[in-house]
Amino acid sequence: MGRMKFLCDIERCIDCSGCVVACKEGNHIPVGVNRRRVITIGQGQPGEKSISVACMHCSDAPCIAVCPVDCIYQRDDGIVLHDKDACIGCGYCFMACPFGAPQFPSGQVFGARGAMDKCTFCAGGPEETFSVKERKLYGQNRIAEGKVPLCAAMCATKSLLAGDADEVSDVYRERVFKRGSGANAWGWNKAYKNR
Amino acid sequence: MKKILLPSLILFWAMTGIAIAQTPENLTTAYQQFNAPFTGEWQQYGELFTSLQKNLFPRLFLLVITTVPVFFFLHYIAIGPMSFPHDGKQVYCYNLFVRIIHWVAAVSFSLLVLTGLLIIFAKLIGPGNFGIAARIIHLVSAVIFAISTIPMFLFWIREMLPALYDLQWMMIMGGYLSKKKKPVSAGKFNAGQKMWFWLATVGGGVMAVTGYFLYSHQGDIEILRLSAIIHNFLGSAMVALFITHLYMSLVSIKGSFQSMIHGYKAEAELKILHPKFKY
């Protein structure tokens, strides 16, 4: 069994937010919920870098540890999923998560939060695979179709990698080896400055 | 010469190290710079909240709702309830206004305790919509309790101020550990009632503020994490004293439940339990 992982290559990410849009549209995410977002540091300055963040599908995930109804669980391949029918919307997972992944739709009675929503690695939920209910609650189940998650599949620069951890790290290692790192890293300086 | 060479070498080494680390081209540095917006200050309260909620809070509440009733059950068997003749002179202690306020607060607080425990042990009792309903009832009763606490606080604050003789009451645990009816040192309210009063009003205020943050889920995540920690710790103390108050009023002192309905207490009881009360 593999171990599913996301990896964002910050040398390639161009802050286009295509992954965010693909996730929202492809999974019919309600307004105000962002399963994925892009963070940029040093905006407009030399060395600006961006990273795309969703649920990191942690080993020993803090959200699983704190959930009072045990509705969050981890599959054998490392994907962290949750049961929306059991969730009581207490928000503890949001407080425990280092990455701000759990999201809560609002707008119910007394402004109560509904069930938590987060990145499913496009692997659906506890409902029957490809069922209407699964699609309605959790979005597409692309893993069961043998595809990578929507965000990684559409990433124009292929900076967002998703899949088996060994494969992903092989791809990334090859890239880093080819383009070099530190002072030898491929970029403007190497291409033009010293010519 | 060697004495200068070695430190300057180390200094040069450190300086180049810092210079390389600060170059934005360095991948590791860039990943490190992401840490602040990426995971925030998780190590501060996030890690603390996670480990407390994982290891302590459910167990703490389980401990409170099991050991406190067991302790009082043993007290009931070993020492038993106190009974005073109620046919003698009656003293008017609680006026209608106070009684109404007390019962509004009592009902809403009981609901708060019940729904709060239901949320903590939701995996055993009711996940899903049942738990969401518990959270909504928790909110509504919290608002009612918060409103009813303000007049209660203002009405009783003078009589609830701590006094020196409260220490004596604490030393003998209010005389509840012996069967003898010896006058204890207490005014209109004894030290136990005072503790309960201050925890319910001031502690209730803290619970209201932290609970507002938890329910609204707005604002800084560090404040949310800290609110959850405070709300749980304070909540466990309030549940413990709530059970104590239930035992004292319903079981331990015969007739004290009725005194909160019609407002009268027997003089014989006051002479023993509240001898410093000037009525």
Characterization of the model:
The complex is a heterodimer of chains A (about 200) and B (about 280). Chain A is of the alpha+beta class and about 200 residues long. Chain A has helices spanning about 20-25, 60-65, 90-95, 130-140, 150-155, 165-180, 190-195; strands spanning about 5-10, 35-40, 50-55, 70-75, 80, 160-165. Chain A has one domain: Alpha-Beta Plaits (2-Layer Sandwich), CATH 3.30.70.20. The radius of gyration of chain A is 18 Å and the shape is globular. Chain A starts with a strand and ends with a helix. The model of chain A has no long low-confidence stretch (mean pLDDT about 90). Chain B is mostly helical and about 280 residues long. Chain B folds into 2 domains: about 1-40; about 40-275, Transmembrane di-heme cytochromes, Chain C (Fumarate Reductase Cytochrome B subunit), CATH 1.20.950.20. Chain B is about 75% helix and about 0% strand. Chain B has helices spanning about 1-20, 25-40, 40-55, 55-80, 95-120, 120-125, 130-160, 165-170, 190-215, 220-250, 255-260, 265-275; strands at about 90, 265. A two-stranded antiparallel sheet of chain B has the order 1-2. The model of chain B is unreliable at about 20-25 (pLDDT under 50). The interface of A and B includes residues 65, 94 and 95 of A.
